[in-house]
Amino acid sequence: RVKNLHNTDVGYYQADLDELARQRRTMVVELSRAIESDQFELHYQVQKHVQTHEVVGYEALVRWRHPERGMVSPMEFIPLAEHSGLIVPLGEHVLRLACRQAAAWPRPYKVAVNVSPVQMLDDSLPRLIEQVLDETGLDPSRLEVEITESTLVADPEHTVRILKAVRSLGVSVALDDFGTGYSTLASLSLFPFDRIKLDKAFLSEIDRSPQAKAIVQAVLTIGKSLNIPVLAEGVEREDQMELLREEGCSEAQGYLLGRPAPTITIPDVVVPLRLVDRASA
Ligand code: C2E
Ligand code: MG
Ligand code: MG
Ligand code: MG
Fold it and tell me: In this predicted structure, what is the pLDDT of residue 206?
């Protein structure tokens, strides 16, 4: 039994922490093997215009097909990949795969790729993107890089320099999970983003909380003033879509419009939204 200075029993906690640390170490080893043996795949989630329902593009979301545990969520392994530095080779793999697949799509939709703050620390990111575009033949205008506010907080000057270099390739840059970070408004003044992605936390509360609704409206106003389209994340219901339409939101993404899927079936024609609420009324 482990005792602390106050002579109370901390055995269980210590055991839990040891177990947690052991699990993490195991996963880091597995993660590095998984990169070598190509256990990752991309699911794609559609992004649509709110008014016209036209497809804007697809976001690439990485999945780990673990040999024993099945499909592992990025929420579980991305933080670990970031801490261990493995996000650098993993991120390169994701970028290459997304560009290669998008280049083969029957229609020239945009592909959005998430880039971790850790990948941004390195000066070589713009060069890597240029190289991957070159090698896959994807038109730069079809690639969008998604970064979060935390990327800008760590080292704003450096990040802005990298983002400008990325932008100069003809690639667009989106600000992901907007509204959840520590310096939301500062981020917008640091770099002229091509798109603001409003975090799904606000939308989920929109019908119950007047505050959440007011925040969504305020962000849409900011977007309009800065001339940056706002994409609402996490649209699950038709009433949320209706509200976004009324408030003049440009774009939306969420389960209502399409879940992330392993193989994309890109429609040849614009498919109108199923009006779930009305159909059942
Ligand atoms: P994100 O970039 O904000 O991606 C959106 C997440 O919201 C995805 O979760 C998506 O499945 C989920 N989502 C989409 N629509 C809805 C909805 O209507 N309701 C709800 N409740 N959720 C919805 P996912 O795929 O689990 O990814 C989680 C996060 O992991 C991503 O958040 C992103 O930050 C990170 N991630 C995913 N792929 C990559 C990658 O290739 N590289 C890096 N660095 N991060 C990644
Ligand atoms: Mg994203
Ligand atoms: Mg997001
Ligand atoms: Mg996120």
Answer: 85
85, 95 in Cβ contact below 8 A? no
104 lines ligand 1 (CB under 6 A): no
For residue 164, what pLDDT is reported? 97
Q: Which of 31, 47, 78 for a ligand 1 pocket mutation test, highest count of atoms within 8 Å of Cβ?
A: 78
| Nearest ligand (C-alpha, residue 116) | 1
**pLDDT for residue 265:** 60
Q: Which H/E stretch holds residue 55?
A: strand 55-66
Residue 37, pLDDT score? 92
Burial zone of 222 (CB within 10 Å; 0-12 exposed, 13-18 middle, 19+ buried): middle
SS3 per residue for 175-239? EEEECCCCCHHHHHHHCCCCEEEECHHHHHCCCCCHHHHHHHHHHHHHHHHHCCCEEECCCCCHH
Q: What percent of the chain has pLDDT over 90?
A: 70
Given a contact cutoff of 8 angstroms between Cβ atoms, the answer to whether 230 and 251 are in contact is yes
pLDDT of residue 23: 86
Q: How far is the CA of 235 from the centre of ligand 4 (A)?
A: 15
Instruction: List the chain residues with pLDDT less than 70.
Output: 1-12, 264-281
Pair of tokens at residue 248: 């003049």
Report pLDDT for 6: 56
Provide the pLDDT for residue 17. Answer: 82
Distance separating alpha carbons of residues 124 and 204, to the nearest angstrom: 38
**d(C-alpha 170, C-alpha 41), whole Å:** 26
Per-residue pLDDT, 76:
92
Q: What does the CA dihedral 90, 232, 223, 205 come to, rounded to 10 degrees? A: -120
CB atoms within 10 A of CB 26: 10
